[in-house]
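I'll show a record.
***
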Amino acid sequence: MKKTWITIAVVLAVIALLALPKLGVVGKKEAAPAATAPGAAKLPVEALVLTPQKLEDKLIVTGSILPNESLELRSETSGKITALLFQEGKSVRKGDLLVSINDEEIEAQLIKQRYNRQLNQDVEFRQRKLLEKDAISQEEYDNALNRLKTTEADIKLLEAQVEKTRIRAPFDGAIGLRYVSEGAYISPSTIIATLYSINPAKLEFAVPSRYSAQVTPGKKIRFTVEGDTNRYEGAVYALEPRIDTETRTLKIRAIADNKRGLLLPGQFVKVDLILQSITNAILVPTQAVIPEQAGKKVFVLKGGKATEVRIETGLRTEKDLEVVAGLQAGDTLLTTGMLQLRNGMDVQIVKRN
């Protein structure tokens, strides 16, 4: 029995001796990191030097282009077209004769009345001379004068009827496609063609009613046309004096130069309506602003360290925020590492804009 216990003790001693070196290695490996821990490194960040910029408070809406003037060419009277004096798609000047309608019957009546006028003028002249000599009564002279004036009135009526058979351009513009041919019989309901004046061009769009007090005639706009990379400029010239009760929007019209004829009625436009313009605004990227319960803050660089600064903001753009208090031109704003930054932390600028 004693030998057995001695054997067990010897075996345990051997096992312990074999295990001690391994335990020592493990202890050294675990202790090494604590003994060699390096000092804290500086946080690499990007920075932006703030400079005053121009800021425009603008409202982006959609609308469409309207012609400056437009109308459908129609006749005031029924009849057969005797002449079409315009070409489709061509320009015309105000007063140009565009369409003639058969007026032979009216012209014949007009010639007849002109002969009657000459006859009545002669009669009136003779009757006036006789009246001056008391050779006739006043009534006889008045009848002759009345016949002359009636004839003159008939001539004016016929001349007006003749003018209705001639369609003239009421303003400078371009003729669209025509829908009738020479020799066709037309009535006042027949559309002959359409006349457009497209320079300048008008734009129509609507803004939410809450902006109604900020929009006045003269406000500048910039706009783009669908399918066109050019940017155009214009100005508001008129506002509807009421809010649409269904859409709660205010209808607005603006005017823009269209000398090149690139803006066509009916085109879809995207309008930037400039509500306010600030020349020396301090703008910061939105990702550099940290919202808090008490307001907003940013980090700026001072003495190689991140310094927390409380700010007040104003207008917002697609990428930036206007800072109205807390920052000034020349400050170096930290724009990355927002989650790691702490007040007083050492930082290293890796990129400065």
